[in-house]
Amino acid sequence: MQVNEPTAQRGVADLRVEAVSQVFGSVRGPVHAVDNVTFDVAAGRFVGLVGPSGCGKSSLLLMMAGLLAPTSGQVLVCGRAITKPEPTEIGVVFQESSLLPWKTALENVEFPLALRGVDRDVRRSSALKMLELVGLKDFVDRRPHELSGGMKQRVAVARGFCQDPRILLMDEPFAALDEQTRMTLGDELLQIWEQHKKTVVFVTHGLTEAVYLCDEVLVMGARPGRILKKIAIDLPRPRTYEVMATERFGRLRDEIWQLIRTTTRT
Amino acid sequence: MSRSRQLAIQLGIVVALLLAWEMIVQTGVVDARLLPPFSEVITRFWAILRDPEVLRHLGVTTSEVLLSFVIVTPLGIGLGLLLGENDYIGKAFKSFFFFMASVPKSVFLPLFILTLGIGFAQKVAFGVFQAIFVLVISSIAAAESIPPDFVKMGRAFGATRRQQYQLIYLPAMLPVIVEGLRLGMIFSITGVLFAEMYVSRAGLGHLIANWGSRFELANLLAGILLATLLSIFINETLRYFERRLGAWRI
């Protein structure tokens, strides 16, 4: 089952994935990691990408970040096709294992700016501001091995935000964290998002997380990787912990799981 | 066990062994012509350190080791990076270095003598030969040990190839490379000293071989002591830097 989205009515969508496929060669023949996927992400929306292992969400994220060229189709940012990473338009938040261990938290956050040759004082103050935003003002000079998992991931988030990109891609950012930390960071992320209204694509395995954080969830299926359904999460914002106990929440979560379950069996 | 207690015990063992050595010679259990007492070795040790001839030979060895090190280090690291980074070339040549690393290099010494003679150049060349395989292997390991997440992250934030090497690869590999340097230094020293002992007109190895063949045992043991202390000093210095640079390594 395929879902194709028409271009957003009001002007061009912030991010558009158009007929994108990713085919790998393998010993057993071609693997359709992503098969003709099309969807839009409207400006300021928090969109989740959920699916089982092997559904191609990582490949999709790499293509949206400009790190992997689609076998066919294209990725458009504000109507413009991208062919390589565009760090000022698209920020990426990886897992905390992507922090450079020999750099301090501050140096890690300013790293993208340093790559672009931004003046030292300017990038220092930007990075400090971001670290304060994620609550790590007192830890700017610590190295990653001196920080907890949650703190490291906050640094990764600060780094993604640092260049003030229009779009933020988040690649299972909380996957390696324990549940309590995930919930805390999820709330913090929503707070920052409310303030800065970025366009977010959030890839995750977690169904609860997806329903709690997102405006809409794209449910993916595997073999071949494709979008099964787009589910609108019409829960009120700002999301509070109480919403997780509502019947609505449960039904949404259930809908996603049923979709994934039934397609995984085939 | 506390550090100071550990140290005390280690020192105690060394002192006990030295005392035992001194005793078994002084009491005649072992002939002093076969094993000079420690006190005599120490006296000779200080004497040779003040001997200008010895210092000249020491200078020769030092320059041979240094030159060997200066040549083999960029060569070995560069090759290792190339082989570790480039799958295509890497697959073809990696096994060669792994195989050669396990071969005792000393058997090649006569070849070096036939082609390069017994002078300075031959010693340096053999030092390089001795060290290069280990250095290449550890540099390959360094290049391959870089977490792919780092590279992905660098690319996502727009790092150019040069920036990737300079700002991500190099610092990530530094501790492993420094370890390789240390090994390179040890093997350079080993290679040079061995070549000097086998046949040479100058150098510390040459002196040691001479003292041995002339049964000047006190001098021989003093020379061995000198070589030992120097090697330990160099090794520990490099280990110190290794630890300092690798503070973030878990």
Largest interface (CB < 8 Å): A-B, 22 and 21 residues
Please give the largest β-sheet of chain B.
none
Largest sheet of chain A: 6 strands, mixed
CATH topology of the largest domain in chain A: the name is Rossmann fold
Write structural notes for this entry.
The complex is a heterodimer of chains A (266) and B (250). Chain A has helices spanning 57-64, 105-115, 120-133, 149-161, 179-196, 207-213, 247-265, and strands spanning 15-24, 31-41, 46-50, 72-77, 80-81, 90-93, 167-171, 199-204, 216-221, 226-232. Chain A has 266 residues and is an alpha/beta fold. Chain A has two domains: 1-85 and 167-173 and 199-266, P-loop containing nucleotide triphosphate hydrolases (Rossmann fold, 3-Layer(aba) Sandwich), CATH 3.40.50.300; 90-164, no CATH class. Chain A has a six-stranded mixed sheet with strand order 6-7-8-3-9-10, sandwiched between helices. In chain A, strands 2-1-4-5 form a four-stranded antiparallel sheet, with helices on one face. In chain A, a hairpin with a 2-residue loop joins strand 4 and strand 5. Residues 1-10 of chain A have low confidence and may be disordered. By secondary structure, chain B is an all-alpha fold. Chain B has two domains: 1-34; 36-245, MetI-like (MetI-like fold, Orthogonal Bundle). In chain B, helix 4 (87-101) crosses helix 6 (120-144). Chain B is globular. In chain B, 33% of the residues are buried. Chains A and B meet through helix 2 of A and helix 7 and helix 8 of B.
